[in-house]
Amino acid sequence: MDDLTSGTRKGPILLDARTVAVVGASPDDNKIGGKPMRFLREFGFGGRIYPVNPRYEEIGGHRCYRDLESIEGPVDVAIVAVPYQHAQPVVEQCVRKGVRQIVMFSSGYAETGADGADRQQTLMRSIEGSGTRLLGPNSLGIANLASGFIANFGQAFELPRGVLRSGRAGFVSQSGAFGTFIFTLSAEQGLGFKYFAVTGNEADITVSELIAAMVDDDEIDLVAGYVEGVRDGRRFLDACEKARAAGKPVLLIKTGRTPGGSAAAMSHTAAIAGADEVYQAVFRQTGAIRVDDEEEMLDIVGLMRSHKTMGGRRVGVLTMSGGAGVLIADALDRNGLELARLDPRTEAELARIVPEFGSTRNPVDLTGQFLSEPGMLRSALGCLLNDANVDAVVFFLGLGRRYGEQIAQTLREVAATASKPLLVAWIAGPAPIIAQLRSEGVPVLPSATRTVRALGALARFGEACARPTRSFSLAAPSATPIVASGGAGRCSEAQTKTLLQHYGMRRLDEALVGSEDEAVERARAIGFPVVLKVGAADLTHKTEGGGGALNLGAEGAVRVASRHILEGALRYSPGLAVEGVLVSPMAGDGIEVIVGARRDPVFGPVVMVGSGGIYTELLHDAAIGVLPLAPGEAQALIRSLRIHPLLAGARGKPPADIDALADCVEAVATLMLEHPEVSEIEINPLRVFERGRGAIPLDALMVVRES
Predict the structure, then answer these.
(1) Considering only CA atoms, which of 702, 622, 631, 693 is closest in space to residue 668?
(2) Is the pTM of this model over 0.85?
């Protein structure tokens, strides 16, 4: 994990420049050193351009310099478009010249293997401690379409000038080619992006920093991008939180959903809280929007040009097809939205508008009659938009080529005065008219399900914006480690429970014994029935190893069980270090959950709560939170579980002590924040009793890392 202390943070990122040097400049517009020269010219860059190449005296009407240090004035940005064999001296010149930012096209670094990684480290040592920032290496570059600052050699800038235009969005990508594809698609759909940046190897400037820099621009309303992995987890959290607090959505395609760590995990927690699950938690907690593909991204970007949020999840549906209404209703449910319950006055008004063979109940079936009666559509849309029970409206229609202009004009007029999101699902409609509507900020999509999916993102971001601003900064750890000494590795159940007691958790009246006689004596003192478990730190699953016995009601049963437990554990794991047998009372009836935490290599400490006991791996019902948790967030994690209805008292059963469960989650979270020596902790099961009776760990493990 990047703890934000590695290396010295340098100057700010430049998203624009007044002076640009192109090192490796070429008079050939098709070469990597020629394209930025052409793009700067064609996009109207108003600053100074300094081509650098000792082979030429002039390129594109600009005096050519033999090296950077020959340039008389300051240089904001230096584009390095030379092979890696010649790049290192150029970077060193940039530092001596005081260049504020390098945009490094050169490849042949960490992306190529060990030798390239060494070259990249040398590169970074060259700028260490200077004020010079570096984008790349192996970067496609950066572009600002508003100013014409195109330090990029991508194919997107080959598009006709009228197609590629600036807008109020930024785009950042870790893939040059795929990022270019999305950027080009957006241009062809009339969606303007002011910025386009490709991070390359992220030796210095990261995707997190670029997001934050774009959010800081008052002319940017949202940031979209493509991300494969984050290098600086805490900066990423802060960048997304900054965007949420500013009301600026961050929409990201995040690839790599393969569960991480499950094959060799020491605990259920490590297996369940895998890499992608942690990313999902990051998106949820920060309000950033994770999208599946470029289609969904551009749908949402198009929608958010007119509306960033919606006031709730209640949707009014107007359709010319009853079947489409049912389809949309299903899609609303899948996307966490709901059909609005219309005000009776709205239904009464609709009854005067909708034909008798239509329907005034939501979804409202207007039928195709509105095509021959233009005022019908305007009136029906107005009814739904004016209903206080409706947070957004979806209008579905198909074809309508003969009436396309008429429909479009109505939609323009209604959308111009609408205070709520109005989305149009227009199937097989006239393409030129739809394109025009989109360019005017009326969100029109070619699918009912895509329309609802985009609306769901709008609702989620609206709810995220309503949350108080928070910080993901980690407080200083406790100065006094309370983890028992003994070096790194797994701690026993008894050691783990002792630590948990420091954080307010209850503990059963249990004891570790070393013989059958001691087991019987302890059971007699506790009172029957009892539970026996092997005391062995390195035995992960006691049930599979035959290391436990429940509900033992007599001395003879305890004696036999203690012997079998010790023998069975050693058969299951020869050479196992056995501390003895743990004798505990039966805990009583309750609901079993799992509470755990681990240190993610990217984002740091995370906590997990889910279905426990034997159901942990079977149900895979878990919720994850990146630490520190905000107030009330532990409760929110619990409410998101599939077993929450059971905890809340399903089918007349008494509700469980959810407050006590939330306290346990927060206790484990605090433990992880205060004690960095703990790399992993798990309570499984944690038995949650009826409301007011608390919760108690029945089994627990902890892993301590090297200090």
Answers:
(1) 702
(2) yes
